[in-house]
User: Which sequence fits this backbone?
């Protein structure tokens, strides 16, 4: 090769490199947006949903606060002010969730910071759900249908927003996405087990039942590895999983150990929470099972898919069974059942995937009949799920409309302000004790209760025996000057109720709370 040939070859290489660079330059921000517009639209739909349905945090909801949400964000404020959860306030939800709430309060006090975190969570959840739909190559119309079903059930279960279930949902959907990607052969990367470990650590130290979708996905991946006799990968995955879990767990335990509250945290999050999850003070009911209609639909659909090849049927079965068992540990509050959303979405995705298989060229009449039968079963299941939640969705829409348009919560907000203004400013410095008053009062007035047991007090007294003695000691011996209560006559603890009557006089009450002054 002479010098001219070498120069010509170098020139051609330069031209190719310049062409590739030019192509990269052409991939502008607008091009990337167009390429990902489906996912961006999915995330936008999530933002609109939270804005219109999360009545306790949304900026368009006028002065609306919920007791549960107010307690969570109140603890977040307390952490920023130097309080230590479980030592200063008693509750059974885990510390990671309360640190998340503290982060929300760090972003912005009151509700806007929490709302910002909800948007982050819904962005993650919708992005992973969209990716799962794409993995099954669903058309745009079928993706819209899947999201519509997802939001319909979400509307029935969100209650007022700001729950640990919302916080963990993107992690759970992420685990399902990574598991399906591996099982369908689209990725051989098993480092996803570290993500599973992170998810477990977060859920384990927030609310263990919330990790049901993650656990279901993990079981299917583990089953696949066992079926392949890939024991080396099982060992590696176990190590990665543990590393992910301790990444979350160790810093939390160190935090509480350094503050001398590790025993308090273990008592609340594990011992008392286990007692509550297994005492079933609210017995199983038709209402409870209606919340879990998707699990019954999942079992029926699995029966008709049991002879299929692949891992989809096992993912369906695992999601159904693990979700069903986990959500029978606790009580049937609306937002507990946000954990069923991954299962609901997966049933919808499988139905849409079967519909698309009807158009495959290579199919026998027998295969066609099987597809049609599965589609009918899945469609019937989704219809039953939606019908079981229709009244709740209707009620939620009506309530949120009333809050946003008519400002129905403004009056309650003003009542909380009115009662707090009756306490002299000099007495507010020492704080206000509370006996089963709703936490809305403390969020509206951006103050903190001085009672270690501000919520669920009668119930916690039954689960944790020292609680009643601690409360009586404060009332009878330390005697806070001001006490705010809900209707004291309805208090489900006669001993504490009598202690208030003997040491305090009611000076004011309104539909929000009662105000008592020390005798």
Assistant:
């Amino acid at each position: 090769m002479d010098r001219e040939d070498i120069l010509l070859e170098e020139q051609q290489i330069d031209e190719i490199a310049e062409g590739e660079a030019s192509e990269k330059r052409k991939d502008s921000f607008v091009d990337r947006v167009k390429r990902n517009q489906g996912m961006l639209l999915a995330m936008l739909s999530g933002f609109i949903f939270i804005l219109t349905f999360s009545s306790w945090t949304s900026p368009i909801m006028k002065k609306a606060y919920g007791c549960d949400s107010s307690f969570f964000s109140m603890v977040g404020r307390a952490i920023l002010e130097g309080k230590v959860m479980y030592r200063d306030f008693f509750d059974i939800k885990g510390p990671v969730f309360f640190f998340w709430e503290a982060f929300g309060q760090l972003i912005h006090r009151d509700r806007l910071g929490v709302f910002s975190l909800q948007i982050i969570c819904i962005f993650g959840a919708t992005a992973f759900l969209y990716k799962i739909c794409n993995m099954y190559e669903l058309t745009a119309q079928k993706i819209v249908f899947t999201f519509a079903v997802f939001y319909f059930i979400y509307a029935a279960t969100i209650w007022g927003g700001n729950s640990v279930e919302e916080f963990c949902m993107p992690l759970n959907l992420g685990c399902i996405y990574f598991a399906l990607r591996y099982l369908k052969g689209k990725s051989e990367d098993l480092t996803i087990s570290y993500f599973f470990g992170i998810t477990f650590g977060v859920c384990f130290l927030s609310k263990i039942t919330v990790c049901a979708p993650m656990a279901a996905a993990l079981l299917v991946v583990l089953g696949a590895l066992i079926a392949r006799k890939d024991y080396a990968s099982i060992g590696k995955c176990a190590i990665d999983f543990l590393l992910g879990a301790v990444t979350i767990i160790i810093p939390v335990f160190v935090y509480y150990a350094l503050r001398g509250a590790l025993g308090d945290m273990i008592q609340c999050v594990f011992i008392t929470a286990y007692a509550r999850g297994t005492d079933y003070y609210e017995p199983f009911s038709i209402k409870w099972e209606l919340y879990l209609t998707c699990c019954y639909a999942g079992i029926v659909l699995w029966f008709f898919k049991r002879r299929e090849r692949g891992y989809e049927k096992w993912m369906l079965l695992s999601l159904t069974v693990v979700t069903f068992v986990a959500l029978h540990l606790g009580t049937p509050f609306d937002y507990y059942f946000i954990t069923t959303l991954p299962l609901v979405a997966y049933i919808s995705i499988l139905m849409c995937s079967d519909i698309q298989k009807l158009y495959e060229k290579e199919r026998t009449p027998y295969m066609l009949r099987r597809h049609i039968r599965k589609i009918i079963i899945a469609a019937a299941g989704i219809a039953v799920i939606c019908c079981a939640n229709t009244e709740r969705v209707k009620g939620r829409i009506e309530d949120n409309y009333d809050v946003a348009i008519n400002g129905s919560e403004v009056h309650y907000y003003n009542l909380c302000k009115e009662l707090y203004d009756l306490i002299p400013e000099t007495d507010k410095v020492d704080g206000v004790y509370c006996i089963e008053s709703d936490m809305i009062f403390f969020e509206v007035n951006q103050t903190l209760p001085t009672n270690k047991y501000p919520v669920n007090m009668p119930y916690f007294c039954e689960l944790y025996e020292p609680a009643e003695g601690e409360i009586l000691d404060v009332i009878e011996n330390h005697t806070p000057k001001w006490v705010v209560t809900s209707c004291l006559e309805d208090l489900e603890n006669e001993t504490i109720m009598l202690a208030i009557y003997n040491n305090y006089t009611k000076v004011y009450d309104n539909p929000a709370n009662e105000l008592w002054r020390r005798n």
